[in-house]
Amino acid sequence: GNDPQNTSIENGKKIVLNCSVQTHNPTMKIEWLKRIDGQQSFRPDALVFGSEQYEHIEQSHELQSQQYSNEILSKPLIFSSVSLKEAGQYICLIQNDKAVNYKKAFVNVFDSRKGKKNDI
């Protein structure tokens, strides 16, 4: 699919969140944001969607550069080894000079070792 999917993934595994849009306009921009959880006070650098605050994803993630071919603009977000702290709500933000559109995906990260311990 073109939209990012809600995903449940084991700690340390690779995950790819897809985001693409069909467009005749290659100047559109795709950005990835992550919800700021447990932040009561307003952060000046945050972007607000609804009543929730989001931050731009650090470049330390393997953020692919935007690709445009066959009128499809795409920019996947890749975690080669996802960590528990990377769980949360993500937004793929698609903007052109006229409008902004966004798609949400929730990433749940679980620790398989912890689960096995509980079974004993």
UniProtKB/TrEMBL annotation:
Domain spans labelled Ig-like: 1-108
PROSITE patterns: IG_LIKE (PS50835)
Pfam families reported for this sequence: Ig_3 (PF13927)
Gene3D superfamilies in the cross-refs: Immunoglobulins (2.60.40.10)
Name of this protein: Ig-like domain-containing protein
The organism of origin for this protein: Rotaria socialis
